[in-house]
Twitching motility protein PilG
Amino acid sequence: MEDTYQGLKVMVIDDSKTIRRTAETLLKKVGCDVVTASDGFEALSKIADNQPDIIFIDIMMPRLDGYQTTALIKNNKRFRKTPVVMLSSKDGLFDRARGRIVGSEQYLTKPFTKEELLSAIKDLVLD
């Protein structure tokens, strides 16, 4: 089962170092290649360089928030098919709807579990 994730490129964008490190540790344990960024601006150049298979992105970030970053990703021909999962500590209907509007495929509430991360990857990348 763990081999399933071997070599998958996963990007985690969050201004919280703790969240980035937690997700990176969980994902590397199952064999994913993980790239992290602390905000949308940093993420955009790393997305172009690394071409991730899936992107996990925090909603509330400085400079360029998760909604803006997702919209930019989804408006780029090269990356519009890359699945984006929004991460938020808020679990409101409005936040979920706004995430869908800008093009995100899924929404996870922080703190997330290893199972939730892997389930999102399985549903959006491996199926």
Observations:
- The mean pLDDT is 94.
- The chain is about 45% helix and 20% strand.
- Residues 2-122 form a domain with the Rossmann fold fold (CATH 3.40.50.2300).
- Residues 8 and 32 are 5 Å apart (CA to CA).
